[in-house]
Amino acid sequence: MIKIHKKYIERTFYLAKKGLGGVRQNPLVGCVIVKEDKIIGEGYHKKYGEKHAEINAIDSVKDKEDIKGSSIYINLEPCSHYGKTPPCVNELIRHEPKEVIISNRDPNIKVNGNGINALEANGIKVIEEIKRREGEDLNKRFFTNQNKKRPYVILKWAQTEDGYMAREDGSSQWISNAMSRKLVHKWRSEEIGICVGIDTAILDNPKLNVRKWYGEDPIRVIINPKNKSLNNKKVLHDNLSTFVMTEEKDSTSSKKKFFKLNRFSFKSILEKLFDEGVSTLIVEGGSKTINYILKDNLWDEARIFIGKVNFKKGTKAPDLKIRNKHKNINGDKLHIILNDEGNSNK
Ligand SMILES: NC(=O)c1ccc[n+]([C@@H]2O[C@H](COP(=O)([O-])OP(=O)(O)OC[C@H]3O[C@@H](n4cnc5c(N)ncnc54)[C@H](OP(=O)(O)O)[C@@H]3O)[C@@H](O)[C@H]2O)c1
Q1: What pLDDT sits at residue 252?
Q2: Residues contacting ligand 1 via CB (< 6 Å)
């Protein structure tokens, strides 16, 4: 039986992942409705503010009478509160499935166990923790938001084979290959914010948008404590959103916002961003910015490309223990490091 539950929970993961980039600060959720070992309906949460996975799955069933006595698989406990949409648990109860099988409880205190209690109080069996770890990994962003009350932070950089991130003259282009750069644009489309230090914003004058993939552009976040001039820089002169975090001034003009932070630190930057709805952040350098974050241990994941070039001298890449295990991206080595205790710099 457990084998069958795992099979359908895996299907919910597959469906849930399709929502990446669209659900914003909501969790990724997939739902599969099974009767006599056949899928009779399925759905996932597609877009923030729109229908949840359970409702899309119910909507997809041709004859709603078939849901009676079915097994409903969802990777996350169904919601039991009124948010942007009514509680899903009421709809599930109304259709009288015999059981609901989930991977994770919802850590949101408005739900946490209440969805399960409501199902059980209505005679519906609940089976929990099927592929719990994989479920947590799928919703790593959401779990970090709920448990740590801060954005999920991904560090990304490219370094040379001999460990440099930029040349002596400050240029850093073409460390990674075209395929790696395309992958980075996909990653940008999956997160809500993208961050660089002020020197990168000035020296490289990047657009920090999504061009080599499809999807929404993230909000650009520039760490600029001393409010150095960004005149003529692309991040202030296009129609996309930019937040500048400074010690100097607060001001807002259309999509460009300057936030004055009193105790300037990456921690206070994350607090402000979280208040502003930036629940995930990809940080793309430079080296000083990433070293600040490593020192404060305020990161969740690092994605490091090692390109096939050598600079011999220049700006050293951040000092993070990189194991041999990597993916091959057309010749570049991609190392993905999770900030569990073994990798943290503290
Ligand atoms: N290979 C790659 O993947 C990659 C990626 C990006 C950039 N780069 C290269 O890296 C070079 C720039 O990097 P960089 O290390 O010199 O500078 P940077 O990291 O872009 O900017 C550093 C500055 O940002 C501010 N800052 C960032 N985090 C802060 C914090 N937590 N608290 C206070 N201030 C903070 C400080 O500004 P103040 O100095 O005003 O205090 C700091 O000096 C460029 O040459 C660029 O081409 C390479």
Answers
A1: 76
A2: 157-158, 165-166, 170, 172, 175, 196-200, 203-204, 223, 225-226, 228, 264-266, 284-289, 292, 315
Residue indicated by tokens 């920090």: 208
Tell me what pLDDT residue 346 has. Answer: 39
Annotated domain spans of the chain: 2-145, 149-338
Of 154, 167, 171, 172, best ligand 1 pocket probe by most atoms within 8 Å of the beta carbon: 172
The string of pLDDT tens digits covering residues 201-253 is 999 999 999 999 999 999 999 999 999 999 999 999 999 999 999 998 788 77
Q: How far apart are CA 140 and CA 161, in angstroms?
A: 30
- What single DSSP character describes residue 184? H
* Best of 227, 289, 296 for a ligand 1 pocket test (most atoms within 8 Å of beta carbon): 289
Domain 149-338 has CATH 3.40.1160.10: no
Quick one: fold of 2-145?
Answer: Cytidine Deaminase; domain 2 (3.40.140)
Which residues form the catalytic set?
54
Paired with 43 in beta bridges are: 31
Sign of the C-alpha dihedral computed for residues 175, 181, 187 and 193 taken in this order:
positive
Q: Which tens digit of pLDDT belongs to each residue from 290-327? A: 999 999 999 999 999 999 999 999 999 998 988 889 99
